[in-house]
Amino acid sequence: MSNSASTAPRASLLKGRLLAFAAIILVSANLRSAVTSLTPLLDRLGHLFDFGSTMTGVLGMMPTAAFAVFALGTPRLIRWIGLERTAVLTMLLATAGLLLRASAGSVGMLLAGSAVALAGMGIGNVVVPPLVKRYFADRVGTLSTLYITVLQAGTMVPALLAVPVADRFDWRVSLGMWSLLSLAALLPWVLLARRTPRPRHAADTDVAHAPGRVWKTSLGWGMALMFGMTSLGTYSLFTWLPKVMVEAGASEAFGGVMVALYSAIGLLPSLLVPALAVRMRNPFPIAMLVVGLNAVAFAGLLWAPMQAPWLWVVIAGLGPSTFPLGLTLINLRTRTPAGSAALSGFMQGVGYSLASLGPLLFGWLHGLSGGWAGSFAFLMLCSLVLLVAAWFACKPQQLEDHWA
């Protein structure tokens, strides 16, 4: 009798973890689809809706701006409704926004749909790490590797399919088909949310015990600046790498291939870095390697872009290794889902705010001189800031100890 009684809870726990695993993987696959499914079609949509480079710039800056704004507010939302219901809201907003954007009849509707979808994805960026902490505290490295890799794949695939699907069917199909994926991710979170009691008030959830004092800690600022400088460099190269190649004598098509390669190489750190970080007491050497890789890549792209473009872009693609490192450290430097949610929100809110300035400043510096020396010097300076920030982010400590 006791054996069967003890087996039932274990079976229920296993079933719950399997459902949570599927839910985390599915939501991770959706966190960039609103971004990369749109950008390859901006020129086509510009002709259709009669907007120019200014509106293209607005649409290009919306992702990092939305990620920043909603990252800062998500820990409070989690305190109100709980982790699982926040994940449900994430996918509801993503689905609604993607469908609204696909049905757009004007540039205003295109902006509105993008804003709603990106709001959901900005919330999702923050809620996934504490969900990993809650359901898989004993498998943080493995789950971090899986969800970050799926996130990277979810960045690449929509970009690759956007134009072919639009050519074969229609731009509305190309933009709207990703709502099916977000709808699929919604279902397991609804089931998990139904199993989880709704918080009566803030004190009923462990997330409520996370004070809003991350900004007073060296760990919080180290994480935020490391993540921010990583994202700033990444989005700068996403935006400007094609022009760097074209001004060096390459074709526009070759510039596009280089961006695709830069994005694809990012899968390798996603597979390796979380597992390494879990095994290292202090993963600061990873940040040191990143700064060295950045120095080589920036020098190559500046002084010899067409001598070995593939090599420089591959090295540059390994540079954002501190992105998966930051996402993994959220759970390695906290003890509870409360701490994880608070650190995740602060890191991504501040980080994406800084990242939104990257493409603008990179291009402004190019415009001042007509060359790329100032732009790449700016990115190198950001890499040095990253190195200092990583010193504080990587050293062994726990966020909750600062609150004590």
Automatic annotation (TrEMBL):
Transmembrane stretches, start-end: 57-74, 86-104, 110-132, 144-163, 175-192, 219-241, 253-277, 284-304, 310-330, 342-365, 371-394
Pfam families to which the protein is assigned, alphabetical: MFS_1 (PF07690)
The UniProt record lists the keyword Transmembrane helix: yes
Molecular function GO terms recorded: transmembrane transporter activity
UniProt keyword terms in alphabetical order: Membrane, Transmembrane, Transmembrane helix
Keyword match Transmembrane helix: yes
Source species, domain of life: Bacteria
Major facilitator superfamily (MFS) profile domain boundaries: 18-398
Name of the featured protein: Transmembrane major facilitator superfamily transporter
Species of provenance: Stenotrophomonas acidaminiphila
